[in-house]
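The protein record filed here.
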Amino acid sequence: MIARIGVRPQLSLVVLIAILPLLAVLLVGVIKNRQLIFQAATTRAQDLARLGAERQDDGFQDAKTVLSMLRRLPQVTAASPENCHAALQAIGREYPQFTSIGVADAKGMVTCMSLPAKLLAFRDTDLFRIAMAAPPSAFVVGKFLIGPITGKPIVVAATPLRASAGDETPTGIAYVSLDLDRAAQHAWDFATAKDATLSLIDSRAATILARSSGQLRLAGTTLTGSPLVSAMLAHPDGGSVEAVDVDGTSRIFGFAPLIAGGGSGLMVAVGLSRATVMADADWRLMMGVVVALFTALIAAGAAWLFADRTQFGAIRSLVETAKKLGAGDLAARADMAAWQAPEFRALGKTLGDMADGIAVAQEKLSASERQLRLLAANATDLILLIGGDGQRLYASPACRTLLGFEPEEMLRISSKEAIHPEDVGVLDNRFKWSNGAPTIATYRMRRKDGGYVWVEAVSREIAVEAGQPRQRVVVVRDIDLRVAAERRLKESEMRYRFLAENGADMVFQYDRDLVRQYVSPACREILGYEPEDLIGKRAFGTTHPDDAERVAQVFQSVLSGQSERAVVANRMRHPNGNWIWIEAQLRTMRDEQTGAPSGVIGSMRDISVRKAAEDQLEEANRRLEALAGQDGLTGLANRRTFDDALAREHRRALRDKTRLAMIMIDVDWFKSFNDRYGHPAGDECLKQVSRAIKNTLPRPGDIVARYGGEEFAVLLPNTDESGAMIMADRIRRAVLALAIEHDASPAKVATISAGVGAWAPNALDIGLEVLMQDADRALYRAKNDGRNAIVCASALGGASATGRPSAA
């Protein structure tokens, strides 16, 4: 069957079979490129979603910061609406991303807020209930709402408020309302993708909370049953999915959770239009199919026509003979049968004659072989051969591609006509006869169409026989793209330097030895130094001694790559002698080739004002804590402070194996004193007794506290029972010496009774309550024995405490 097919169709079939693999490779490559484009779009959508989530997290981090500040502000926790309003308005101006900041009491009524609006009941009752039941420093995020005052889509975050650190029942909540439209726009500022969208989605409620500009109307749209929400619920840590958007557009979505949202189910989704992403790939696929079919048709047609004029067997014989001759086998001859066409036999004879002629011509060609090798070795660029008089003797065919001229035209054009007028002087200075040394010049050459192209030319004088005119070879290479890239790089560097040198924060760079390589001009305002005063010098020279070691550790952590980013705040000396607080954002700089850390880059800002405010707040908290540990009437430590001191001194006595003593004191007949002289006089009596007790204690480590009512307690570290008895008697006599009038007392003046308990080192592990019981038992005995007396617990033996006597 095959034998009946003619040479022409056979040759066409062979050509088609030969090009089929190439066509298949072309189509597979186009399809693979389509898949890669889709994968790249998916990765890009995920990266944009993560970056958007990080920016959205900034708003929630700010919310946490503001709520933490509100828990500690006296203006908020105190019952003063005027101060509270003023404080919240000041905070609202510092954080414009919050539509409102407010405080609600335990009944859910808003008592103050940053906006000058009518105070109403707190709208999100579920959030209020959860926040009131949350731990003291909890951060609770509510559901999507339309603000009743601003009319904007918002999410409310809240934290419980307590009157003091020890209170278990919250007095209300503090809350902030995050403007979702503003937050979404802030998160989308970084993206410039065409037809892309950014959405803030509550995955639990399947609701769009905010949408990028141009589609703000879609905020509040429900996504129940959407593949996007299903993917978010299945992958809470982020992922991607292809789905139809609410606007009817098929998109490639990437999504990522808001970490600062505290597990609230809030996610940022970035959608890229599938049609836009795949448009170029679809066009390439269509063109690939068209080119493949067109190529196959052309090849088949050409083979058909060629076979119409020849015979395949004769051609193969002639081709094989030609290959052998080309390989150097000059004895090869075409074996042509007698029945072959006269043309094939003549061609075979011609090949034989050609082989004989080649053998003869090889001797003649050897003389010009060196020049041909030189031209062939440099054929990739434009090659010019120039005589000593400047006349061009040869121009390679590359001039057509580079300049659009034919070689013959290049020979008629002078160098000055072919070069940009501003660059003629470059050639006059560079391309001088230099005894064989190569010279390099960069200039612009004129194209035939009138335009110019940047080239790099290497000129070298070549050796010629004695007496021959001097010649040189000039190899010209197209560097137009490289020059354009260098120009763009230079412009980019100028833009980035402009940003760095005009920013409010100081930008800096350190090398591996922590020597400054660059400092932006902002150092003048922040540190008071000129850039040249800092560049080339090591870090930490002006760092406060107390901060130097900590700052060095942070820098070393970033420099070693252990921490990719870090933030450090410390003090630095200003040239005026003052210490200023600065905050530095640090990041590891890595070598582009090896990836190894090569230095540190970062920015620095002055936080002295913020630090001063923080210090004032901390001092206020310390004062509040001190007041919480004092008795309001006498100024002595209160019972809670005394209990803490007793536990602390007990642990110390156990550790150091020392003695510990305690005195319990009670003012005699105090109820009768109040009944006769009134409570104000009773308060004054307690004040004088407390001062007498405190002034009698000689050591700063001795502790005296008002234990309750007219009772006082004294703790004497490293004191045995006899020493405590002596001290108790001194206190009794000091109070007696006050001579406070008391007609109901047998002594006619105010007196005290005291009980002393003490532990030896071998008995300290009995327990705190035993020491207190011993002192209390001794006090009861002193009261029962007639008052104005001192009794020690050891004198009671094993007797149990009797009932407390009447204070009358």
